[in-house]
Design a protein that fits this description.
heterodimer, A: about 500 residues, mainly alpha, three-stranded mixed sheet, 22 helices, B: about 450 residues, two-stranded antiparallel ribbon, 17 helices
Chain lengths: ~500, ~450
């Protein structure tokens, strides 16, 4: 396996973890916020370094130079590949942007050291490919939000029930998969359990209520950081995609499609801004799953592009909403708030990021959405139609939310509500990423296409008797024929 | 320097000038710098002037050399060679696109000049010109698009800028609600457009118009697909065009769009925006030759829209609304002309109508003011106010009057049969989710029910 020039992965996982200990010892909230911001910035720099280093290697996967874990455990714990290489900087950016836009007034509610712990867990998850380790990290990642809910004296039952089920499904599924390698029936059950667990974490309908509940009860920042990295989708890609037969992927795609349309419709009728955001996010993350399960190079490349674009744009959108909330309290969408005159910057960011998430032309999501729909139509025209319908409804929901939050009346305020410098910098970075990625999409698309090809090749290695994805690329009819002879989960 | 390279440079100037205007107006706003009104007006004038001169130069070259079709290839914006996926950036200068691009520059230039005075010291001056630049870019890209994806790109920009300009007076709920309505209609049209683009890709393997409507210069192209495929793609494009041009059943957004300031109403809904749908139909008109049912549908839709516009415009009490419906009549007639295959007549009709309507809409508010001033000066009502003697109306006439007054009950129909059932279904789902989470929580689960907006102290922010 290729080797990176520096131990980027280990450093980016360990730095926030060590930082969390230091920050937890700081009594001064302002100082804790500043230290946390600096640590997140360095972590982002490390992940960007990893990405560039990996890109220069030109290989499908690589591990750290001076790999400590490899020396101790004699196995590659942290490995980066074409799928995860850009996800690591995206995850680090998510944390940095959230911490940077946390206003002083909110810092007493937002736990900086737990945030750093979460960042470390997320980066470790994204840098890890071993199934049991991924499951363990995904399980540990559920603790910080639970702890916060407890601290805020909120009811944790919805969250706990869903997360317990999620972890149990993954653990039982993986255990069965390891144990019953020869039994076809057990393999199918194991695969089904793993799929159910990963889909539960992704918030697929009807198992999505934990997500809306989390947005209701946790701080917006914590909820945003827990869901926007889309670790559920990552679990699907790592645990399910390589081994699942076509019929299972199609089932995931149909469930995800239903979720995408349902969540888009629900986003349109929500009265609470956080719930609206949650449904919008659900719709988009489900669209990513739809593309991933197409298992064709175009569909998969589209989904990987949308994964990144949705990550960037909905992060910006969520942060804009969070910044507005930091100034006004929780926002309802059944009345007009007219905040434009006070926060034109945030209004522009809200609209730009919202439109980018729906794949508006000229933004980072445009080509990804085109590829996704193209890939979907190639296999099933009706799926393409549903994706278009979901995108149209999301578009209406985004502009409706913009109108309700920023226009419709004149808001009078006794204080200045301008953007703070940190928010302004974050907005500009987001704009550069969204518009820059939109105007020059080729490098990103090319990289995601390579990743898609490699993942499909990896899948065909895992399923030596299955040529389903190749067949389906040729024609849906051929694919359906091959599916009949391929009704086993193979490991 | 060859003619091709000259044309290429000119073509790029035509497309780049509005793009640079958008960047010049948008970037300073983003960086927190405020440009003065004078600078914004000068930038707009320069951009429109340069773009117009370049388009006229292209037209002149085409007339002098007799060339009818000048494709300008900008290469692939995105390409995945092994999958034969190309997002091709191509602009086409022909007998259809060049007049429409020139028309866009002329009318936008006129309105820009008017708006710089009309909106002087308005709080939303910078916002207006930013959206204006977005609209101009959208119109130019749509007019010159050589592929359906490029056309979609421009189409979306036009839609967004139009909806935001309807809501221009955004401190009042009325314009905002109307902007929302316009945007919703546009999204429906956009969805139809996107599905049409995908269907076209599926049928022809490319988004290039030449694959769909033949390689001949407009209007002599011959569609290379069979009649049923032409019908499928054509109906979807017709739906998209109907949404954009405010034809039946989407005509409800036209009077709502008049909430925007006069300059935007003039150029967007009276002149250019409403003609974008008919422009699209003209661009794909060779499809109509292949499919008779499609042609019949186009003619019927045009006729119904024209009759609807006639009825509604006669009962409007507001001059801008009357002009909006008068536009609908003409758009309907243009659509009929396209359906009948009278393509040049439709193009000339479109250009003439767009110019006339722009001037009418720009003049409309001031003519009322002039009239009032004149009455004040004379000291009495001017002649022509004699009330007609009452006549007994038949039941049908009364029904027709009500029908026209309610604009064909189209908005009510869409609200009752589409919007309300849709929201009712999802609100029911929302209620069920609430019950489910309440059950899991063992009590009320929605924090947001108890939280009022502005629950935090704003002073905390300071």
């Amino acid at each position: 396996m290729s080797e990176l020039h520096l131990p980027w992965l280990e450093l980016s996982v360990l730095l926030p973890l060590v930082g969390a200990v230091c920050v937890s010892l700081l009594k001064n909230r302002d100082r804790a916020r500043m230290v946390c911001t600096i640590l997140c910035a360095i972590t982002l720099a490390l992940t960007i370094g990893e990405w560039f280093d990996f890109a220069m290697l030109g290989s499908f996967e690589a591990h750290d130079h001076w790999d400590l874990f490899q020396t101790i455990f004699h196995r590659d714990v942290f490995v980066v590949d074409e799928l995860s290489a850009p996800l690591l900087p995206l995850g680090a950016l998510l944390y940095l942007a959230t911490v940077m836009t946390t206003l002083r007034t909110k810092s007493h509610r937002f736990s900086f050291h737990w945030t750093l712990v979460s960042e470390s867990i997320l980066l470790a998850t994204l840098a890890c490919r071993h199934p049991w380790l991924i499951i363990a990290l995904l399980a540990i990642a559920t603790i910080p939000p639970w702890w916060e809910l407890r601290q805020r004296k909120q009811c944790t039952r919805v969250y706990v029930i869903h997360m317990t089920l999620f972890v149990a499904l993954l653990v039982v599924g993986q255990a069965l998969a390891d144990w019953a390698t020869t039994s076809a029936l057990f393999s199918i059950i194991a695969g089904g359990l793993l799929t159910a667990g990963a889909l539960l974490r992704s918030g697929v309908c009807p198992l999505h209520c934990w997500m809306t509940d989390l947005f209701e009860k946790a701080t917006f920042g914590t909820a945003l950081l827990f869901v926007t990295p889309m670790t559920g989708v990552y679990a699907v890609m790592r645990l399910v995609f390589p081994i699942a037969p076509s019929w299972a992927l199609q089932s995931i795609a149909i469930l995800s499609l239903v979720t995408a349309v349902y969540a888009a419709g629900m986003a349109l009728v929500q009265r609470d801004s956080r719930r609206f955001f949650c449904y919008l996010f659900l719709s988009h993350s489900s669209l990513v799953l739809v593309g991933l399960e197409m298992a064709t190079p175009i569909g998969l490349a589209g989904a990987l592009c949308v994964w990144l674009s949705v990550g960037i744009s909905l992060l910006g959108f969520g942060l804009a909403l969070r910044s507005v909330e930091a100034r006004t309290g929780r926002i309802t969408l059944d009345t007009f708030h007219g905040l434009y005159e006070h926060t034109p910057f945030l209004a522009a960011m809200f609209l730009l990021t919202g439109l980018a998430s729906i794949g508006f032309p000229g933004t980072v999501g445009f080509i990804g959405t085109e590829l996704l729909v193209e890939g979907a139509v190639e296999i099933y025209p009706l799926v393409g139609l549903a994706v278009v319908v979901a995108a149209a409804m999301n578009g209406v929901a985004v502009v409706k939310a913009y109108f309700h939050v920023f226009t419709g009346t004149r808001h009078s305020s006794t204080v200045k509500m301008d953007c703070r410098p940190a928010e302004r910098i974050t907005i500009l970075v987001m704009v550069v990423l969204i518009v820059g990625g939109g105007l020059n999409p080729q490098p990103g698309v090319q990289s995601r296409y390579h990743a898609a090809r490699a993942l499909l090749e990896h899948r065909s290695v895992e399923q030596p008797n299955s040529s389903d994805q190749t067949d389906r690329t040729l024609s849906p009819q051929t694919a359906r024929t091959s599916d009949k002879s391929n009704r086993k989960w193979k490991r | 320097m060859t003619l091709d390279s000259v044309m290429g440079v000119l073509g790029i100037i035509v497309v780049l000038s509005p793009a640079l205007l958008l960047a010049a107006l948008g970037l300073p706003l983003l960086c927190g710098c405020k440009l003065s009104e004078g600078v914004q007006a000068r930038l707009t004038k320069a951009s429109v002037g340069i773009g117009l001169l370049a388009s006229v130069a292209i037209l002149t070259s085409m007339l002098v050399t007799g060339v009818r079709h000048v494709p300008i290839e900008l290469g692939n914006w995105v390409a995945i060679e092994p999958e034969h996926f190309h997002f091709h950036l191509k602009f086409v200068f022909d007998r259809l696109s060049v007049p429409f691009a020139i028309l866009s520059f002329v009318l936008c230039g006129t309105v820009g000049a008017f708006a710089s005075v009309y909106l002087h010291r308005e709080q939303g001056y910078a916002r207006f010109f930013l959206l204006y630049a977005l609209f101009l870019l959208g119109m130019i890209v749509s007019s010159l698009a050589g592929t359906i994806e490029t056309l979609f790109f421009g189409w979306e920009l036009v839609g967004l800028s139009s909806a935001l300009l309807v809501a221009y007076f955004h401190e009042r709920p009325g314009p905002v609600r109307n902007g929302q309505r316009v945007w919703t209609t546009y999204r429906l049209a956009d969805a139809a457009f996107l599905v049409a683009a995908l269907t076209m890709h599926h049928l022809t393997g490319a988004g290039d118009f030449e694959k769909l409507v033949g390689s001949g210069a407009w209007p002599d192209g011959v569609a290379e697909i069979n009649s049923w495929s032409a019908l499928a793609v054509g109906v979807l494009l017709l739906l998209a065009a109907a949404g954009k041009s405010g034809m039946v059943p989407f005509s409800g957004w036209l009077p709502r769009a008049m909430e925007g300031p006069t300059p935007s109403s003039a150029v967007f809904y009276g002149a250019l925006s409403v003609h974008l749908g008919t422009y699209l139909l003209l661009r794909v008109s060779p499809l109509l030759d292949v499919s008779l049912p499609l042609r019949i549908i186009v003619i019927v839709l045009g006729l119904v829209s024209a009759v609807m516009g006639t009825l509604a415009s006669r009962v409007q009490s507001d001059v801008k609304n009357a002009l909006a419906f008068a536009s609908l009549i003409q758009v309907g007639i243009i659509t009929v002309e396209i359906g009948l295959g009278l393509r040049y007549i439709a193009l000339i009709h479109m250009i003439g109508h767009a110019c006339l309507r722009t001037l009418q809409l720009l003049r409309a508010p001031s003519v009322l003011k002039d009239y009032q001033m004149l009455e004040d000066a004379v000291g009495e009502h001017l002649a022509g106010d004699a009330v007609n003697t009452a006549r007994t109306a038949t039941g049908f006439q009364l029904w027709l009057y009500r029908f026209a007054l309610h604009r064909g009950f189209l908005d009510a129909f869409l609200d009752d049969w589409i919007v309300r059932p849709f929201t009712a279904v999802f609100r029911w789902c929302d209620g069920m989710e609430r019950r489910w989470t309440n059950l899991l929580s063992g009590g009320p689960s929605r924090e947001s029910d108890r939280v009022s907006p502005y629950s935090d102290s704003l002073e905390d922010v300071a």
